């Protein structure tokens, strides 16, 4: 156990999660944070990146899994690997830029050991010095170590640092529809990242981010100022005879729907902690751009299949414990916890192959308005999360309340659903119960 | 690609135009005044600095030549700027409370091009301290302005802002222009 002097017993951990509330210690205790890294992030399937981040042979892209510095590489046969970013000689970090192309080999900057992109040792300068020693060029200890398991779901790469466990597809379950949508909604059947992602540091615990994503009772309150401002600008533009960009509507909705209007969107809890949000947001607006896009989809897939794809009622997929996907907005966010009160987020935008430019532009507008480093939306979320962290570090109360509609979840096979028309805190309860199971070794 | 972005992309970023001292002073005064307007939060004056089609642009990457169609840190026309002003001044803009303060220094002003009609391309460097929530953070970078000469003085058709740390990570959100 990584340097934990004070440890928590499973019974103590289990007592932090009650059916309708969670104890503040789960968000602020650094020993628990280490245990989370060990038992959740360094065990479960964690998102690494999309294959288009390493498009060419020799490309690499760094990622953190739990506390481990990893990298995704593409070798010269086109295969993708997930490796520890550590030289097997004396331990130096191998690649230090966030991304790049290593050429034919990765060269360690310290003593110039050379590695293939799959991590295998290629050669060592002045290798004669190792004659008669325990070092052999193909010895296991002298290769860059690979993630214990790596797999992709349709080009979205994950790794698990546990040697054993369920497969990626089983882990994702029905929540994988989020990825399907991100690909199938492209008339060209492919998706790719656009440029670099934005990196934002959340000054708060990673669970607070996840709990915010499907929190229906927050948008009308948190984002009121932006909603009102956007609505006013829309009105002024219309008065002047201009049609405001559709992306502005994503913001003015905050004012239009108020606090209570968000109950009409249903949430679903899936096995292993994933959650999905149905309905909302431009799934199928009726405007010329969307209609042109629908026509492209018909041409590409035929009407029946296209309708099947476009008919999927999914706005948002949360893949526990590490990411959020919003397929209709072509956006993906992944989180990399740093400490109890700091979480790095990567915010990616995707382009749907062969979709009309206007569809790309609209989603790009959302990406800008909601998630750029100058966003008028997420600014208020980030600030609230920081304030929550601040409050939970205090002794002003031990519990975080998730009582909204508690006891009224609708069980549907393996799924747990919020009651119709509610803004249930089911997703938060669901994720904390799964957290408890991971943390106490109950599988999950 | 917008006309101003095209002009900026076509202009040699190391060129030094031979301009008269009057022009140099007028352009410097304009840049200093823009910084003051921002620092003093004179929002009507801010909006009046831009042409009707003007944009404030902070690219996410150095190699970008246009703000259209790519992710940006800022890409705002007058409608967006108006929205930002309204939002930041709204009583419920809680992440803006207590309100921030900005303090700019603009320097190294080099006029790159002066067109026959008096339009200017100018590059400069800035430093800006932001005070928010009882802490100070610092920004620095390069401005490139495309200025139109009008009867009412210079107007910004395009302002490109290259932050030295454009790739982030961002510890928190930029809510006002820099
Ligand atoms: S540490 Fe990498 S070659 Fe020595
Ligand atoms: Fe929000």
How are the SSEs ordered, and which strands pair?
The complex is a heterodimer of chains A (about 450) and B (about 180).
Chain A: H1 10-14, E1 17-18, E2 21-23, H2 25-28, H3 30-41, E3 46-50, E4 59-65, E5 68-74, E6 80-84, E7 99-101, E8 106-107, E9 114-115, E10 121-123, E11 149-153, E12 156-160, H4 168-172, H5 177-184, E13 191-193, E14 198-202, H6 206-213, H7 219-222, H8 224-239, H9 246-256, E15 267-269, E16 275-277, H10 288-301, H11 303-310, E17 316-319, E18 323-326, E19 331-339, E20 342-352, H12 357-371, H13 378-392, E21 399-401, E22 410-412, E23 415-417, H14 426-439
Antiparallel strand pairs in A: 1-2, 2-21, 3-12, 4-5, 4-7, 5-6, 8-9, 9-10, 11-12, 13-20, 14-20, 15-16, 15-23, 16-17, 17-18, 18-19, 19-20, 22-23
Chain B: H1 3-10, H2 21-39, H3 43-48, E1 50-59, E2 72-76, H4 78-89, E3 101-114, E4 120-132, E5 135-150, E6 153-163
Parallel strand pairs in B: 1-6
Antiparallel strand pairs in B: 1-2, 3-4, 4-5, 5-6
The complex binds FE2/S2 (inorganic) cluster and fe (ii) ion.
The site of FE2/S2 (inorganic) cluster has 8 residues of chain A, from loops.
């Amino acid at each position: 156990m990584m340097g934990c002097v004070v440890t928590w017993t499973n019974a103590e951990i289990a007592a932090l999660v009650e059916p309708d509330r969670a104890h503040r210690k789960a968000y602020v205790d650094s020993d628990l944070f280490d245990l989370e890294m060990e038992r959740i992030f360094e065990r479960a399937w964690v998102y690494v990146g999309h294959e288009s981040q390493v498009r060419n042979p020799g490309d690499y892209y760094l990622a953190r899994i739990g506390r481990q510095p990893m990298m995704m590489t593409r070798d010269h046969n086109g295969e993708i690997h997930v490796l520890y970013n550590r030289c097997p000689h004396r331990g130096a970090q191998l690649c230090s830029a966030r991304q790049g192309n290593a050429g034919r080999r990765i060269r360690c900057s310290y003593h110039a050991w050379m590695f293939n992109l799959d991590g295998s040792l290629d050669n060592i300068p002045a290798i004669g010095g190792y004659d008669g020693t325990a070092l052999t060029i193909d010895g296991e200890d002298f290769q860059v170590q690979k993630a214990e398991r790596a797999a992709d779901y349709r080009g979205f790469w994950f790794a698990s640092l546990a040697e054993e466990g369920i497969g990626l597809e089983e882990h994702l379950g029905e929540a994988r529809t989020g990825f399907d949508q991100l690909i199938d909604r492209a008339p060209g059947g492919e998706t790719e990242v656009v440029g670099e992602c934005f990196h934002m540091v959340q000054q708060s615990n990673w669970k607070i981010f996840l709990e915010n994503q499907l929190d229906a009772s927050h948008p009308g309150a948190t984002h009121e100022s932006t909603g009102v401002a956007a609505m006013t600008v829309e009105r002024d533009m219309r008065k002047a005879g201009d049609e405001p960009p559709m992306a502005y509507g994503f913001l003015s909705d905050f004012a239009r729907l108020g606090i209570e209007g968000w109950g009409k969107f249903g949430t679903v809890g899936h096995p292993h902690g994933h959650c999905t949000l149905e309905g909302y947001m431009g799934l199928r607006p009726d405007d010329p751009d969307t209609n042109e896009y629908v026509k492209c989809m018909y041409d590409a897939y035929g009407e029946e299949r296209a309708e099947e794809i476009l008919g999927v009622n999914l706005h948002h997929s949360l893949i526990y414990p590490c990411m959020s996907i919003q397929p209709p907005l072509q956006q993906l966010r992944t989180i990399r916890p740093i400490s109890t009160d700091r979480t790095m987020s990567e915010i990616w935008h995707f382009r749907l192959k062969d979709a009309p430019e206007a569809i790309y532009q609209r989603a790009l507008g959302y990406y800008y308005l909601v998630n750029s480093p100058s966003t008028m939306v997420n600014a208020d979320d980030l600030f609230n999360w920081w304030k929550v962290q601040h409050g939970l570090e205090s002794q002003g109360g031990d519990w975080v309340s998730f009582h909204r509609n508690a006891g009224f979840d609708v069980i549907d096979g393996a799924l747990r659903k919020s009651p119709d028309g509610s803004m249930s805190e089911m997703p938060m309860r669901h994720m904390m119960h799964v957290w408890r199971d991971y943390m106490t070794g109950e599988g999950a | 690609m917008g006309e101003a972005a095209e002009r900026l992309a076509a202009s040699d970023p190391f060129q030094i135009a031979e301009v008269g001292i009057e022009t140099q002073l007028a352009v410097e005064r304009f840049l200093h005044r823009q910084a003051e307007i921002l620092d003093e939060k004179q929002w009507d004056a801010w909006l009046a600095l831009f042409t009707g089609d003007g944009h404030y642009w902070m690219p996410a990457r150095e190699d970008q030549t246009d703000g259209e169609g790519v992710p940006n840190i800022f890409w705002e026309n007058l409608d967006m700027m108006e929205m930002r002003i309204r939002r930041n001044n709204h009583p419920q803009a809680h992440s803006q409370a207590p309100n921030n303060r900005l303090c700019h220094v603009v320097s190294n002003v080099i006029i790159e091009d002066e067109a026959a009609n008096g339009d200017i391309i100018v590059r400069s460097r800035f430093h800006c301290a932001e005070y928010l929530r009882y802490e100070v953070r610092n920004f620095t970078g390069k401005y490139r302005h495309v200025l139109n000469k009008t009867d009412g003085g210079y107007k910004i058709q395009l302002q490109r802002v290259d932050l030295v740390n454009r790739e982030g990570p961002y510890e928190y959100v930029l809510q006002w222009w820099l």
